[in-house]
Amino acid sequence: MVALSADRLSVRRARRVVVDDVSFAAEGGALIGIVGPNGAGKSTLVQALLGLVPATGAILLDGVPLAERSRREIAQTVAYLPQGQSLHWPLSVERLVALGRLPHLAPLSRISRDDHAAIARAMVAADVTTLAARVATEISGGERARVLLARALAVEAPALIVDEPLASLDPAHQIAVMDILRAQAARGVLVIAVLHDLGLAARYCDRILVLDAGRLVADGAPSAVLTPARLRETYGVRAWFGSIEGVPVVVPLTRDSAQGD
Amino acid sequence: MERVTRARLVGGLALLALLAGAASVAVGSAAIPLAHVVRALSGQGDPIERAILFELRLPRAILGLAVGAMLGLSGAALQGFLRNPLAEPSVLGASNGASLGAVIALYFGLAELHPAMLPIVAIAGAFAALGLLFVLSAGSQSALSLILAGIAVGTLAVAGVSLALNLSPNPFAAMEIMTWLLGSLEDRSFSHVALALPCITLGMVLVAWDSHALDALTLGEDGARALGVDLRRTRVRMLVGVAIGVGGAVAVSGAIGFIGLIVPHLVRPMTDRSPSAILLPSALGGAALLSFADVLVRVIPTSNELKLGVVTAFLGVPVFLVHLMRERRLW
Fold first, then answer.
1. What is the spatial distance between Cα B109 and Cα B125, in angstroms, rounded to a whole number?
2. Residues of B at the A interface (Cβ-Cβ below 8 Å)?
3. Which of A86, A173, B89, B223 is deepest in the core (most CB within 10 A)?
4. How many domains does chain B have?
């Protein structure tokens, strides 16, 4: 099972500390949510975990420092769905999902039967098989979000990092995507998801990391981490906590006046 | 389904390129019947006809196919690499650099020293342009900064060519430069083939090597890196490949525009539109189109033989009008 850890990880951008001394370790089979206010450094943290931005501190992927691994090795081990992925070319949906197989292809080789099977599995999982022949730049935002998730799933990597996979999805598809992530974790994949919906995070994640101004301020089970005091301190909101039919519910109610500007 | 149509497309274009190459051998100012061509190719027949075929037409046909393939392939690869459908070999300044090298060889009389001198200086010009491009765009991985640097390098090379025309000592020297700039495969020999073919072969391999990276780049630079692409190496291979291949092509053919621009647009609708899928069809299509254009310049009766670059420029216009009409939904 894959193991990913960060030790005293910091990222600076233009002299500003964006990720500040973050340490944690994770193993396959878990769905880990990263939450925090806008600008807390969530996306930068996951980019650093993938070696996409220069960082200080140590990142170990299966016990080997990330810097000692080639881009190709990292891509084979960790699939990544960036936030707000833009498309620069009018590819068909099927070709776009097939890009997920690139980390496994040798130069000048073509997609094999196994690759086709992985692409088909990913498209079924993300519910996009009916879109296969459409042009990816001409489908709706919600459809595109699911197609891009299918692209990440097609890598079939032991770890999957998704950055705001629920943006522009309707409630039914938000739940569907969280179910997919849950199922991936159940199969032994390490899933790290940057999320904004605290209710869905509380309900689906095994563990939640709370980031605030680049620092890791809480790390643990949803019930231990998502508390009224934590939400007031981190987001500056009062929230209602409860449970409906055994499902945890978090509803932000008002901005906390003490934190207001 | 997709694979069948791709096989048909590649097969069809390969056949077209083969026909164009055969036509290039068979057609010329001296009428040689097809039966004689076949006999000459098998080592028999009239020695004068054999000389025409082997020393004039065969090198010309080989160069037409090779130069066309290189221009088509590099146009297709650069459109994917820069994610810009208007990219072509000249956007990185390599072909203009090669042109400037050739013009320098003509201007200073180096070309008269040895027939291979002009192409060699032209290839050196392409490399100088590449070196300048690397200096100007160093450290940046964005497509836009590369295009801007390429335009700067290309413009500098064009300015140098204009300067040579401006300062040329007499009208004949200026005419010689102008004639070369129009682009032609007339009177090329096997020494040109020996010079250009290795450059073009190496260039084509380097450019085609990163076909998967071109597909990954449809997700942007970060998306491509997350898919395991080493962008720095991809960029070096792509730029060196274009400089060597296009430099070698321009060195023997002169500046032939539009092939690299229009061929990818012609073949793209027949593929799944991914950048990697148009590479081979563009190479074959470029080979066929340039060879047919080179037959056309011999067939159209004019007092001076038409220059190849003139014909390809005229071919480029209707293709862009069709694209404009599609874009405006008039057709």
1. 16
2. 80, 83, 208-212, 215-220, 222-223, 225-230, 272-275
3. B89
4. 1
